[in-house]
Design brief:
The chain is α+β, with helices and mostly antiparallel strands. The protein contains 4 helices and 10 strands, in the order H-E-E-H-E-E-E-E-E-E-H-E-E-H. It has a 3-stranded antiparallel sheet with strand order 3-9-10. It has a 3-stranded antiparallel sheet with strand order 5-4-6, with no helix packed on it. The chain is elongated and about 55 Å long. 14% of the residues are buried.
Amino acid sequence: MADAQKETVEIHGSVWDRSHIEEAIADCKESSWKRQAWFPRDALVHRKGGRVSLYVGQKYDPTKIDLVKGGWNHDHCQICWWDLYESEDPEHGIGYTNRDDWLCSECYSKFIAPKEAPADSGGI
């Protein structure tokens, strides 16, 4: 049963099947992450249907799409889908970004942060 413990992991109080997040963890390990407060960004809102897209400078048709300053009001952790948004609560308001994607602090520390090497025992 020792293997059953390794097959699950707790994130934000919920138990996850580790196999469901391994691919996301591997993908995130390929990026360089920086800790920072989450902040709203501009969004494109399609007038027909209301679909919202993050605005990153791409061209759009202003007769069909509105540019909304600060309209991108949250992101999700790339591993556990935790909500990150502007908040005084550091659980939601602070995360790690690679400029495109976000990680919650818990997933970053559990899966991505460099692990410290054991202290040298001083030799033989």
